[in-house]
């Protein structure tokens, strides 16, 4: 399937509500990317230049892919009758052992994005597709990088297409990608501060029967300093498993399928501590 996706293909839909602590970035993406695609005449009318490409970078598990998926969802649901098509690719998945195949597919992707414009192409793990010169293993990468650069530069032909790339290591991607007209804006995803961790904790404990009492929430926020969003998501999932273990231990022994009412499984502070 190569058409645009509404969310991460095959994955549950996520919205901006599912993204914690990145409100500023959500706002900038709407302002810098989505609205200029939907209202190009307004932006051109006031002489505002929309970016052609945005690079997300920062440590693993800080919400880069999550934010892109939420953006995809918001594009599909955009008001004003104008949808923005969203194409998502993992960098390394674009590569091929067949000579010239990766380049052909990249050209096809950009062509399709142009056919569906306004549209956004998201490359996750961009370093896998366009590694820095020093990190390239062979000639194949060099040719793929050259193709990608040419496609990014094809200003006239590119139309209303914005390209977003994500990487853990911005210095690991080819430096030429970061020149003006290519990925000319960057968003750095830092590890979340206390308030962001609180938001992320609440997002991932939304399904619990009751929110954590304030003192326990404070304790969890304090103890997760230096953690990323993915770590906090894992903590919440572990706590839920601990609650299942505690509430219905027989689930592990029973040979028959038990009827378990999930509302009985009250995930609480003890489970978070255990996790
Ligand atoms: P990588 O660089 O490894 O691809 P990433 O920055 O793209 O990492 P994500 O894949 O977005 O990280 O995060 C993994 C999971 O962690 C998300 O699916 C989500 O469950 C959780 N998560 C990460 N950041 C946040 C956040 N800011 N708010 C809510 N959940 C988050």
From TrEMBL:
Family: Belongs to the AAA ATPase family.
Protein name listed in UniProt: TAT-binding protein-like protein 7, AAA ATPase
Recorded name of the encoding gene: YTA7
Portion of the parent chain present: 169 to 443 of 1065
Species for this entry: Coemansia javaensis
């Amino acid at each position: 399937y190569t058409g645009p996706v509404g969310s991460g293909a095959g994955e549950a839909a996520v919205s901006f509500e599912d993204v914690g602590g990145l409100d500023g970035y959500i706002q900038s993406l709407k302002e810098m990317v989505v609205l200029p695609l939907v209202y190009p005449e307004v932006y051109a009318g006031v002489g505002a230049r929309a970016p052609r490409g945005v690079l997300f970078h920062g440590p693993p598990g800080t919400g880069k892919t999550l934010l892109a998926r939420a953006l995809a969802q918001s594009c599909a649901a955009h008001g004003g009758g104008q949808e923005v098509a969203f194409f998502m690719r993992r960098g390394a998945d674009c590569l091929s052992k067949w000579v010239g195949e990766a380049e052909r597919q990249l050209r096809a992707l950009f062509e399709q994005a142009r056919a569906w414009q306004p549209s956004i192409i998201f490359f996750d793990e961009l370093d896998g597709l366009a590694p820095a010169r020093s990190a390239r293993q062979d000639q194949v990468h060099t040719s793929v990088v050259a193709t990608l650069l040419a496609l990014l530069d094809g200003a006239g032909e590119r139309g209303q297409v914005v390209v977003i790339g994500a990487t853990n290591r911005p210095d690991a991607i080819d430096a030429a990608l970061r020149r003006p007209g290519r990925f000319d804006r960057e968003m750095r995803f830092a590890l979340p501060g206390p308030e962001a961790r609180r938001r992320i904790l609440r997002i991932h404990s939304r399904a619990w029967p009751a929110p954590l009492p304030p003192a326990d929430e404070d304790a969890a926020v304090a103890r997760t300093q230096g953690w990323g969003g993915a770590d906090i998501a894992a903590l919440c999932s572990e706590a839920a498993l601990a609650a299942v273990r505690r509430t219905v231990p027989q689930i592990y022994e029973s040979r028959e399928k038990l009827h378990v009412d999930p509302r009985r499984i009250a995930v609480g502070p003890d489970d978070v501590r255990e996790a």
